[in-house]
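Good morning C.,

I know you're traveling, so I'll keep this short. The sequence:
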Amino acid sequence: MGLSQTRATNGHVSRGKPTIIDVAQHAGVSKSLVSLALRGSSGVKPETRQHILNVAQELGYRSNTWARNLAQGRSGMIGILLNDLSSAYHTDIAQGIEAAATTVGLSAILTHGHRDEEALSARLGHMQDLGADGIIVVSAALNPQHLATAAARLPIVVVGRPAAVPDTVGSVWNNDELGARLAVEHLAGLGHTRIAHLSGSPRPASRARLASFHTTMTDLALPEPHQVFHGPHALVHAMGDPATARTAPTAVFASNDRRAAKLHAAALDAGLRIPEDLAIVGYDNTELATLLRPQLTSIDQPRHEMGQRALHMLVDMLGGQPPRRDVVEPRLIARGSTIPNSA
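The tokens, ready to paste straight into the viewer:
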């Protein structure tokens, strides 16, 4: 008979719906610590929170979120606003948010803005009108003033790197400067000196990666001028042009996996070998990186963790805590696009 069916309390066997006291006793912690863990409060160690959640799940405990929400004047619903639903980066973060929301008894509604700032602003207003307790924006495209206006009504957390984040808005973003440095140092460590950058959009994250590319190239005393391309075909053409072949790059750091994949395809179409003729590093470590052949070396942003951090920050803000600035550290995942199978 499972724990959810039979429980021992003060030496007696009890049956029925498990309570928070049952969770505390089986987890070996206090009732108040269980309450903090189930609410997603930041004052609980991650391993302790996970232990409590595991025990609660095994017991079949379900908090009465509806009654609690009514008492607090809340809907128990949070909004997730994505920039682009077709982006694996955005949907992975959304999955992290939703998984964390479930553990604290919150439900989530999701919408996206089709990479259009006006559409994003409209969706942000719609979510407020629907009665969301708070909103997590997975986009760097929203105007800071729009964010500030929304934050005057309810807690807002942004996952990404907008041009500016109002003081009233929480944020979670990736250390783009470190990610770019890891990419260039990896390629330089493999013996490449002519390393180019395949640049992306004018967004702050792309600009930060570009700036760090230049800084790292200079720090490593690699040849100038540092080569920056804005399209894969221009880069591949430079490698095949006799006038530029001697100075053409042997390795490329792309601003994201999508651009890296386009370069990967263009290079193979041109008869180039990867990584023997051209080594490629992407950014984001999306599923796309493992679908290419050879698989793509990429800078991993811990997207599920970013989503979970955003949700727990939002819960803390709902509890009266001020917004925070959380920066997560990326890491490099080396695969066949930079390291030959014989290496």
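Safe travels,
E.
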